[in-house]
Amino acid sequence: MNAVRSLVVRLYLACLVLLPSLLTAAEPAVFHHENVLGTSLELQILAASEDAATSAEAAALAEIDRLAAVLSTYDPASELSRWWRGGQAAEVSSDLRDVLRASDRWREATGGAFHPGAELFTRLWRQAERTGNVPGAAERLHAALLLQTSPWTWHTDDVAEPTVSYPISLNAIAKGAILERTCRRMLMVPGITGGLVKLGGDLRVGGDLRETVVINAPTDSVVPTSVLDRIAVQDRAVATSSAAFRGMTVAGRRMSHLIDPRTGLPVDHIRSATVIAPDAADADALATACSVLSVTESLALIDSLPDAACLLLDDEGQRHTSRRWPTPVLALADEPVPPWNGGMELQVQFEINQPEAGGRYRRPYVAVWVEDAQGKTVRTLVLWVQTSGPGPKWIPDLKRWYRSERARKMAQGTDLIGTLSEATRKPGQYAVLWDGRNDAGELVPPGDYTVFLEAAREHGTYQLIRKEISCREQPVAIRLEGNVELKSATLDYRRRIEPARPRSSAKPT
Fold this sequence. Notes:
Immunoglobulin-like; 8-stranded antiparallel β-sheet; 11 helices; about 30% helix; disordered N terminus
């Protein structure tokens, strides 16, 4: 009996030792940075401690800076720019060599659908956008013939020589290469068991972290559109290529920024291409190639590769998946919303401002909520904060919302920070709807309410916008004056708009 008791005590003590690390690793620390390689960076880190997570964040940022100094086509001092400008055989670093070799591999495997020389056509069409003169067939044919020559020649494993005069860009593979190496570097930090690196719409998940990735149909609209899929990703990369937000207008016609290097024409048969692969550089290059190839060619290419999968949305709104595309993660259907005030709703639309200063910066914490005529919080609509790592200590900087939340929490005993908060957002326009229900899910009566928009940023400013609005039978539209953090905002009390049910055969809006 004593031996059994001793064993139980030892197991109990072992659990006490392991419990802090298990609890810490249950939820990843999340970090956001803006203006990283011209886009948004998100890091999720499974760490044994806050110090380990902070060290991994620093290692990831340093790795991104290091690789940008190698692969950037925008920086004339980067290794790639200097090597290309030199025009002679030279030894290249292992980082540049690997990307150049991968570019060779995918250029050949896709029959030129992926090509670093597509930059030649990109510049041609950007010029056409400025002048309004569409490139002629003869001009495009001449450029396409130039691209049939390999852009560089290898003399040894590490010595390469630029061999053509046309411009090149590694943008369609370099971001993936940076994602891949940054994720690996992050996982090398002691105490890190899993991580996610997300740049723009592409991501790499490594180690023990498992992430549910939502793939949206592409749109230029501010309001989110239909969801194409939800998939679980672990130890894989996901890259999406789409013309949304990055198209060009030539002679009054909207066109994709993606150009077929074989013809010199903007692609118009694929709305978006999402690729899953073990390596982020491969996923990046393949997503571009699948936007250029036909649907049949893309599916055949992806199915020929081990551990790769793709989801394509064509110009008719049809969804196509390869054989190994993962089973979707099912989402619960939305509950029916009872009508408020005879079928009304309030839309709050606002824009997070882009700081004027260059370099990286922290995203602002943002809260949007509604108070009644007595100044009591009725409903928190938006709470975008960081709840892991050092983030929680900055939540009180949302002064008015935090003061109201403390009073509500004492009265009701529930914690909105733990249940309602979401990740901070990058600069841009956002919209949120209020259906007339309070935080308990109950409909509130018609009357006068005050909408608050509050923003606070570390090393930035504190801003508060407030506006009373009548929520009764008649629609009301109000435009609010912006500030440093929130550029603009509007309130639109209107008749409820029933969302259209997405269909795979319908064109995205």
